[in-house]
Write a structure and sequence with these properties.
The structure holds two protein chains of two kinds.
Chain A (H helix, E strand, L loop, with lengths): L1 E3 L27 H25 L2 H18 L6 H13 L7 H17 L2 H6 L1 H9 L8 H23 L5 H4 L4 H5 L4 H14 L5 H5 L2 H10 L28 E2 L10 H34 L3 H13 L8 H8 L4 H38 L8 E2 L15 H7 L13
Antiparallel strand pairs in A: 2-3
Helix pairs in contact in A: 1-2, 1-4, 2-6, 3-4, 3-7, 4-12, 7-12, 7-16, 13-16, 14-16
Chain B lengths: L2 H27 L5 E5 L9 H5 L7 E5 L35 E7 L2 E6 L9 H9 L4 E5 L11 H5 L5 E5 L10 E3 L1
Antiparallel strand pairs in B: 1-6, 2-5, 3-4
The chains are: A mainly alpha, B alpha+beta.
Chain lengths: 419, 182
């Protein structure tokens, strides 16, 4: 339906000149076919890095591809659309069928995961501009103690849960809003996030890839897929001689010690701990769900409609005297407050349900993490944990077998372990 | 094949199936279409946030003019300050802080107002003047030669009137016209 708007002033009637009314210019949307080029570059880069990492075993190649990704996906494409953010588009599309997802976003969301199922986290290795940028600044790696490392990694699971909660309720894309590196790629943007990005890069000089390990919600999914990958990074090209030269080479704490020389622990203590954790698991899930239900109302306030309804309620009851731009705009739009309040109530309900699921999910994840730490796996070789290995290829050159394979001088073996 | 290989193989297979199912569900439920951000000028309240909230240093939002709505007024309330000294192009008489709105004589008593886009910062001062006292032919639009197509638009998040939405990329502008769609 359309209605004519009565103008305050009549249109001009040109009599002396035959002036023709111009029309406003409409610059075309530039990037549509570029999107498909990006998908091609993404897949090509993933194939290339898989080959470099698993076949060629070349750290130099991985670094070079990383620099390319930072320049292309980062500074040239301004970091958007990225696979990390695509989680939210996919989640929102599942919840809201009127929300369109471009084909390119689907490719960005799914291709790295499918690659992770076969080749591990090759996306993190050198294709993701966020990861590649952090890898480039890592100059003086320090070791993060395992307890801290494992605990901080939980943050990423919580972040993923929250991002999905906000996406399915239409409350915005928090991964994009709080992205620390895209403002750096754009060389403009929110000052706070630029400062956070610079600070993360500063920390990243010492702590390997802090965003990837402790915050990245997409890394969580890649880690899951990668834990059952068909092929994986093997530190040694031959057989492991337990020389322990690679033990400290991973700046991301992904290398697990071989259990060949580990002291044998009494089985009874382990069994008791396992049983305790199995009992704890449902308790953690229930506690998480309860906490989520409590937090749901607070999370809902981030939604525009809920925020506006609460503000209007305060103004209507005279608690606050002044008005905001949003409340003024709403009053001028002659929409009814009742329908807005009803919408806000519905949204609060949806947030509570979504947050409860999210809390249960976080509880489950923490429980399973504790269980996985309690289970002792037999590991004959020194190897990188499949889900944590970011495929940077730093450890390759620390293996004397690799040096021998390349015809490089092999350092003297270290003193045997004492104690 | 040992037990561990079998286990990881079957997990991999099921994850692959799950991913395929998810992809199918998204592609079927949501139309795989490309959208771009755009301002609905009829909802815009001219708050001025477009000039400051865009991630670009100079906003992707600029003023556009629907000439068919314009009255070609001699005293344009989008062009002139309230109570201007004189109705001429002197900088002290202009509302636009960057001098991006140009005034040219057509014939008595009509003047045409055009936008010098490189200078426009999307502050909506002229839009406000035109909409409150004139025909409302000046309005803001996201210019797609500048827009970065962020996954989440910063100005859409900051907009107090919820005037910025995704629109189909095939029809990327919502210019004002005399016929208002309701």
């Amino acid at each position: 339906m359309s209605q004519a708007v009565a103008p305050r002033f009549p249109p001009p009637e040109f009599t002396e000149t035959s002036h023709v009314l111009p029309v406003p210019t409409a610059p075309a949307v530039q990037t549509l076919w570029f999107e498909y080029l990006d998908v091609v570059v993404l897949i090509a880069a993933l194939v290339f890095v898989s080959w470099l990492l698993l076949r060629r075993r070349s750290r130099a190649g991985v670094v070079a591809t990383g620099i390319f990704s930072v320049l292309y996906f980062g500074f040239w494409k301004k970091g958007c659309i990225c696979s990390i953010g695509s989680i939210q588009n996919i989640a929102q599309a599942l919840a809201d069928s009127s929300f369109g997802v471009p084909l390119a976003v689907l490719f960005f969301g799914f291709t790295p995961l499918i690659f992770a199922l076969f080749f591990g986290r090759v996306f993190c290795a050198a294709v993701c501009p966020h990861g590649a940028l952090q890898d480039l600044v890592l100059l003086k790696p320090v070791k993060v103690p395992p307890w801290l490392d494992h605990s901080l990694r939980m943050l990423a699971w919580i972040y993923l849960g929250l991002a999905v909660v906000f996406a399915v309720t239409g409350g915005g894309f928090i991964i994009c809003q709080y992205d620390p590196f895209v403002p750096i790629f754009r060389l403009s943007g929110n000052l706070t996030m630029i400062l956070v990005g610079v600070a993360l890069l500063g920390i990243g000089v010492f702590v390997g890839r802090p965003y990837c390990r402790f915050l990245c919600p997409y890394g969580v999914l890649l880690g899951l897929a990668s834990s059952v990958s068909k092929w994986r990074v093997r530190i040694t090209p031959d057989t492991c001689t337990q020389c322990r030269l690679c033990e400290e080479s991973c700046p991301f704490g992904a290398i697990e010690k071989s259990t060949v020389e580990a002291p044998v622990r009494p089985a009874s203590a382990d069994k008791r701990r396992l049983l305790l954790l199995l009992v704890l698991l449902p308790i953690l899930i229930a506690a998480g769900a309860w906490l989520g239900g409590v937090a749901g109302g607070t999370l809902a306030r981030k939604h525009r409609v809920v925020n506006l309804a609460e503000r209007l309620q305060l103004e209507n009851t005279g608690v606050v005297k002044d008005t905001t731009d949003a409340s003024t705009a709403f009053r001028d739009s002659n929409k009814s407050f009742e329908s807005l309040a009803a919408e806000a109530r519905g949204l609060r309900g949806r947030y509570t349900v979504a947050a409860r699921w999210c809390g249960a999910w976080v509880g489950l994840v923490i429980g399973l993490k504790l269980l996985s730490l309690a289970v002792i796996r037999r590991r004959p070789d020194y190897e990188a944990d499949q889900s944590r290995c970011l495929g940077c290829a730093r450890c390759y050159r620390d293996c004397p077998q690799e040096l021998q394979r390349l015809g490089l001088p092999v350092p003297a073996p270290p003193k045997p372990a004492t104690g | 094949m040992n037990r561990r290989h079998f286990l990881s193989g079957s997990l991999r297979g099921s994850l692959l199936l799950a991913l395929g199912g998810l992809l199918g569900a998204v592609a079927r439920r949501a139309k795989a279409r490309t959208t771009v951000w755009q301002i609905d000028p009829w909802q815009c309240t001219m708050c001025g946030r477009c000039a400051t909230e865009c991630v670009l240093e100079q906003s992707a939002v600029k003023c556009v003019h629907s000439f068919d709505m314009c009255g070609y007024c001699q005293l344009c309330t989008g062009y002139f300050e309230p109570d201007p000294n004189r109705l001429n192009t002197g900088a002290e008489n202009q509302l636009c802080p960057t001098g991006a709105l140009l005034r040219s004589f057509i014939e008595d008593p009509y003047y045409e107002y055009t936008i010098n886009e490189p200078l426009c910062v999307g502050c909506a001062k002229c839009v406000k003047g035109c909409t409150m006292f004139g025909n409302g032919s000046l309005h803001l639009q996201i210019r797609h030669d500048r827009c970065l197509h962020c996954n989440e638009c910063s100005i859409a998040r900051a907009c107090p009137a919820d005037a910025i939405h995704r629109v189909p990329a095939g029809k990327p502008y919502q210019f004002k016209s005399r016929e208002r769609k309701t």
